[in-house]
Amino acid sequence: MSFIRYTAAFACAGLLGLAALTGAQAQAPAPSWPTRSVKLIVPFAPGAGADIGARLAADVLSRKWGQSVIVENRPGGDSLIALRAVIGDNDDHQFLFTPTGNFTPHPFRHEKLGYVRERDLLPIARFSNTVLAIGVSESLGVKSLQEFIALARAKPNELNVMTVPGITELVWDGFTKTLDLKIQKVNFTNLGQGAGEMATGRIQAVMAAYAVMQPVVQGKGARVIAVNGRTRAPAIPDVPTAIEQGVPSLQLEGLVGMFAPRSVSAQLRKRIGDEVADVARMPEIAARLVASGQVPNPGGAEEFAADIAAQEKQVAEIAKLIGLSRKN
């Protein structure tokens, strides 16, 4: 064999060997994960809907993964404390478990966020929807959303409402702006206490998670007149949505899911996302979510990302409507 032929043959063999090696590496199993305990950070105090969902998921995942899955509550700071902990640590064993409505209004609420959502907070899986609803004091005597709107028009500035700071309050403001309603807003640090005031008549309306108002509704001090989501809630199937009652400006999805920092690879996000969504599909988990005022809504990263983008668009449109400028 000539030197040229020998060299060509050697090069060809080398390329084939390299291709085989590359193929073997591509097919090699991903490194084992988790290698230590996993942490789910929740931006609420224990007992909130997202906290309950996180703990249900953690219990199942810890058995599946063979490592403890710990739920850590870091409330406060408009959820920035929890977000910055996950983003700042950038640890592939630490994740955020939260409603999306906690951060989608951030660009309109804070001048210095310290994070870029698309880069630093990556969707892993959609887990559930918090049932958001509108409750009114029984003393008002109204039984539907349209009756409440008529009463608010008849009594401008005489009715008050408690909303939750963030996207819930933003949607309410868009609703009153669209219909030119004059309703006073009242803030409560303790949402349960505020909802309880519907029984006394000092608070006429509440827009919040159904779980917040459930005790006073069950005590006959208030009634739910509308659900904010696109579909009715299993816990209160007889209550129509705001959309069904001709008020689309009150539509709001209480999306809840899991997010990863940028250190987590796409391959690992896909694996974790599939497993988290599978937990939400379990009948026993679904039943417990419904009992706590939530709705199972399992979905992968792409579905979840699309939902978040739609909610960010909704926030931007409402902000423009009410004259709220982007700060970040």
Describe the structure.
- The N terminus is likely disordered.
- The protein starts with a helix and ends in a 6-residue tail after the last helix.
- Helix 2 links the parallel strand 1 and strand 2.
- The chain has twelve helices and eleven strands.
- Helix 2 crosses helix 10 and helix 7 packs across helix 12.
- The longest helix is centred in the first third of the chain and has 25 residues.
- Strands 2-1-3-10-4-11 form a six-stranded mixed beta sheet, with helices on both faces.
- The protein is α/β, with parallel strands linked by helices and 328 residues long.
User: SSE order in H/E notation?
Assistant: HEHEHEHHEEHEHEHEHEEHHEH
| Derived structural class | alpha/beta
Helix content: 40-55%
> Low-confidence parts lasting 5 or more residues at pLDDT below 50?
1-30
Please give the number of β-strands. 11
Distance between the termini: 70 Å
Strands ordered across the widest β-sheet: 2-1-3-10-4-11
Q: Return Rg in Å.
A: 24 Å
> What does the average pLDDT come to?
90
